Amino acid sequence: MLATVIAATSGDVTKAGKAIGLALGVGLGALGAGVGIGNIFGSMIQSVARQPELRGELQGIQWLGFALTEAVVFYGLL
Q: What is the pLDDT of residues 59-74, one digit of tens each?
């Protein structure tokens, strides 16, 4: 894979390093956000299963957590 990246950047090692760093940064940011969002919604399902009467309260907190976690992806793209 490294040879493919270097070939795509015309043999310029600096450009290849930047491309690899960018891919790792964006990929890990998206991976972390995916895990975080999965935890948020999984915990929401467990909480509502235990106490269905708190669904309204928990839903607001859930969407706030989702938005903050999703913001991490946007920071990763910068």
A: 999 999 899 888 877 8
CATH number, domain of 16, equals 1.20.20.10
Q: Which distant-in-sequence residues (6+ apart) come within 8 Å of 20 by Cβ?
A: 2, 5
User: What pTM was estimated for this model as a whole?
Assistant: 0.67
The domain of 33 spans 2-77
- How far apart are the C-alpha atoms of 2 and 17, rounded to whole Å? 10
Number of domains into which the chain is organized: 1
User: 20-29 pLDDT, tens per residue?
Assistant: 888 888 888 8
